[in-house]
Design brief:
With 341 residues, this protein is mainly α. It folds into four domains: 70 residues, no CATH class; 86 residues, no CATH class; 58 residues, no CATH class; 53 residues, no CATH class. The chain has 16 helices and five strands. The strands form two sheets. The chain has a three-stranded antiparallel sheet with strand order 3-4-5. Helix 4 packs across helix 7. The radius of gyration is 42 Å and the shape is elongated.
Length: 341
């Protein structure tokens, strides 16, 4: 039955032949008949007291070539889905001029269904107890325990006829197959995700940025860092606003280009990396020599900012300028890591 409205007054079935037939001819007749069937004790429980279900089942039956009472007897509602019982499936296929033959057999372990559509090669489908075991059906309470041979037959039949004659069945699933599908489970309430929690990293603390900016600028002036490297390391802690990035990249003032001289005394613990003054300019006789490996080990083994500051004092005792630059970079990396904790 195609879409029907009261105005169209379209027949639900093909013209009737001779004999008594209750098939409704109009939408009004179909609605009235559906209510009558829903009140009857002779319809399956899926249609008892449900005229809407009766109407839809009759529509399905009309499209498949089943009379109204045949439709209600052979269409099941399984897991909220309309499906055809297996015997109706083979009846529809065998009555179709497209079907040349359907042959079924079972050897006690494997069911076989051979189906041939006119003008096409024969299709052979099997379903064994091994298949049932793999699908979690073997030993399942119900028909698979009571009638395993019948269930093997239905499964092989469903696979074969749905593959070979989908147009005859109009895409209707087979009830015995749908019954074995797991029903949907309630997985609990959907978690409501706060949009704020899905945003990117937090902003770089304003007070901390204000405090660190002069030291970052000093490091850039001394050539120990670039604006890009400072911004890159800051982003490991938090995002910067365009104004903050602009403050880091701003041209150096005359005062910043001429950093004030500092005494040779040790710098305060927890200082910024830019306060670490390489001591390579001091006379070699005035300081103890340290190798790159030794200072690197001290920096790596520091467990807090205090220890890291002490280790940083040894950077200037390394002769090679390239090594000193690498140690300064290591110091900055570890300092950022401690501050981010």
């Amino acid at each position: 039955m195609s879409a029907i409205t009261p105005q169209e007054n379209t027949a639900l079935t093909a013209p009737r032949g001779m004999g008594f037939d209750l098939s409704p001819q109009t939408f009004e007749q179909a609605m009235k008949f559906s209510h009558m069937l829903a009140e009857s004790d002779l319809v399956p429980k899926d249609f008892k007291g449900k005229p809407g279900n009766c109407l839809i089942a009759m529509q399905w039956g009309s499209e498949l070539g089943l009379k109204p009472l045949q439709a209600l007897s052979n269409i099941a509602v399984v897991n909220g889905r309309a499906a055809l019982w297996g015997d109706a499936v083979i009846a529809l296929v065998r009555s179709s001029p497209l079907c040349e033959y359907v042959q079924e057999s079972d050897d006690g372990h494997t069911a076989t269904c051979r189906a041939k559509r006119r003008g096409e090669p024969e299709q052979v489908v099997t379903f064994s107890m091994d298949d049932a075991k793999q699908a979690g059906l073997s030993g399942k309470q119900g028909p698979w325990t009571q009638y395993p041979k019948r269930m093997r037959q239905m499964r092989a039949r469903a696979f074969a006829l749905r593959d070979v004659f989908p147009d005859v069945l109009r895409g209707m699933p087979v009830a015995e197959e749908v019954q074995d599908m797991p029903t949907e489970r309630h997985m609990g309430e959907v978690e409501r995700v706060d949009p704020a929690r899905t945003q990117g990293p937090a902003a770089f603390p304003v007070e901390r940025f204000t405090k660190n900016l002069p030291e970052w600028r000093k490091a850039i002036a001394l050539g120990k860092a670039t604006a890009d490297s400072v911004i890159g390391k800051a982003l490991t802690i938090g995002t910067l606003t365009p104004e903050q990035e602009e403050a880091v990249r701003a041209p150096l003032t005359d005062a910043e280009k001429a950093p004030a001289a500092k005494p040779a005394a040790a710098q305060p613990v927890g200082q910024q990396v830019t306060d670490v003054q390489p001591k390579g300019e001091a006379p070699a006789a005035d300081r103890q020599k340290f190798t790159f490996a030794q200072v690197s080990e001290f920096l790596h083994s520091a467990t807090d900012l205090a220890a890291l500051g002490v280790a940083a004092e040894l950077i200037g005792a390394v002769d090679d300028p390239q090594h000193r630059a690498e140690l300064v970079a290591l110091f900055e990396e570890r300092q950022f890591a401690f501050e981010a904790e």
